[in-house]
Amino acid sequence: MTNIQKSGFQEAARKAFFQGGNGGQMQDTERVAVGALGLGLLILGLGGGAGRRLLVGGLGLGLTAVAVRGSNPLATAIKVEQNNAGQTLISEAVTVNKNAAELYAVWRDLDKLPNLMSHLQSVVVLSEKRSRWTVKAPLGSVSWEAEITADEPGKRLAWASLPGSSIDNNGEILFRPAPGGRGSEVVVRLKYRAPLGTAGVVAARIAGQEPAQQLRDDLMRFKREQELGFAPTTQGQSSGRTGSGRAGGAK
């Protein structure tokens, strides 16, 4: 968890959140799709020459075995965390040098969150508890409606997507005083069901659009915004490196 400070509380909360979870567990629909693809390739491979049997048939056999096991080895390899219900688990934390009440107030202003979170395109507040969220996705954007399920001013905010949403998700954000008077610990926990199962999670990770990566980046941006009043960026700036390897083109 690069550059994100984690206290004993944060680490304990993370372990509790992931307790009982496992990685790469495929959803039923994903297993059926992968199994059907594997069997199709296996049958196709058996009808060809030695090379075709080896490559196509071997790939089909491998996919069939993955479907039978119900575990995506790629998702396991990149340490995707899931619970027994097949939801992907995310937990990130950051320490911000401000009090919890101030940070909660910023986060509670939902329609302003896109100013803090780069992957978030819009949040439209529909009522006191309901809102419509739109985020960037590998193939465009995705929207859903969510409802606030718990609201403890200065301490905690929890939400869940409404039934029928394109992405089934729920989560919470906690605000707690950091040890040693170092401001506040901000902990975000998310659970979501990827539209394409573990294959979708892997594809999003490769494309740099995986929610865990986005959340990590956004929390660091949130920390800088709150502590510095702006988020430093290198966009639009020239590189300090030159062809001769000397910064700024020094003579």
Written account of the structure:
- This protein has 251 residues and is an alpha+beta fold.
- It contains 7 helices and 7 strands, in the order ααααβαββββββαα.
- It has helices at 8-18, 28-46, 50-69, 73-77, 100-108, 197-206, 211-228; strands spanning 88-96, 120-125, 130-137, 140-152, 156-161, 168-177, 184-193.
- Strands 1-7-6-5-4-3-2 form a 7-stranded antiparallel β-sheet, sandwiched between helices.
- Helix 2 runs antiparallel to helix 3 (50-69).
- The longest helix has 20 residues, at 50-69.
- The relative contact order is 0.15.
- Mean pLDDT is 78; it is low at 1-5 and 238-251.
Note poorly predicted spans: 1-5, 238-251
Distance between the termini: 40 Å
Shape designation: elongated
Report the order of strands and helices.
HHHHEHEEEEEEHH
Question: What summary fits the major beta sheet?
Answer: 7 strands, antiparallel
Tally of alpha and pi helices:
7
Radius of gyration: 22 Å
